[in-house]
Amino acid sequence: MKKQKRVRYYFDEKNDDFRKNKTKLKLTIDGDYKYVSSNPFFKVFSFGLYYIIALPILFVLSFTVYGARVKGRKNLKKVKKDGYCIYSNHTNYTDAWLGAVLVARPKRTYVISSKYAVQIPFVRILTKALGCLPIGDTVSSIKTLNENVCKLLNDKKAIMIFPEAHIWDFYTGVRPFPITSFKFPASCHKPIVPVAVTYRQPKLFFKNTRKPKMVVHIGEPIMYDDNLTEKQNALYFRDATMEFIREKTGSPDNYEYIKYIKVDDKEQSDAV
User: Fold this and answer.
1) Which CATH code fits 6-16+25-271?
2) How far is residue 46's CA from residue 116's CA, in Å, rounded to a whole number?
C-alpha cells in the first residue's frame, strides 16, 4: 500500500516559518558590523576551513548521502571570470552549502543569511568564517552590507541569496520573491545566476518512506542591462529568476514528498 504524503498547513507564503528559530540571544547588527574580517589570522583560518575542510566534506556528502544531481553547470562559463549572485528557491537545510558546493565551486561563495546564523557563541565564528553575511537591523547596516556585497562581487566572488527567506522542506512550488532581494546585483551592476531545486523519488528500497533526492538546475546567467535603471534591472532579475524556477519546479518529474495546503486562518495553520 502506497504511503500517503506528509501534510503541512500554511497561512502566509511570505512569512510562515516551519523552522522557527528558538535562539534567545540578542544581537543587534548595525552599520559598524564587520562583514568581512581584515584580520590576517582570521583570513587564513577562513580559507583553511572553507577549502580544506568544509568544501571537500560537503562535496562528498552531497553526492553520496544526499544523492544530489546537478544540471547546467556549463552555463557558468559565461561568468567564470566575474562575480555574480546566485538565486534559488529555499527547500532544504542543505541549501546552506548549495552555492558553494554544487554551483560556484571553486569560486568562493558567501551567503546572505538571517542574523541568527551569527548569534551563537563560537558557532558564529565558524559561520562567519564560512561566509555568512547577516541581514542587519538598521538602515546603515543594510548600506554596509550592500557595500561589502559589491566589494566581494568586484573581487569575483559569488553571493548566494534565497529570496523566500524561510525553508519549506521539499516544497515543490514557488513562493513570492521580494524585489528588495535583487537590489544587490542591480546596485553593483553584476550578473545573476538563477538556480532551481527540484526532487526525485528514491528508486530503491522503501522509496515511499525515504526522503527524496535533490536535483539542482543551473540556468543561463542573466546580465545587467545598461539600458535599464537599477530599479528596472532588479525587477528584470526578479521576473526572469521566478520564470526559470517556475518552469523547473512545475515539471511533473518534481516529486512531492510533503503536501502543503493553504488555510484561511493563522490559528488553524498553527494548530495543525
Assistant:
1) 3.40.1130
2) 20
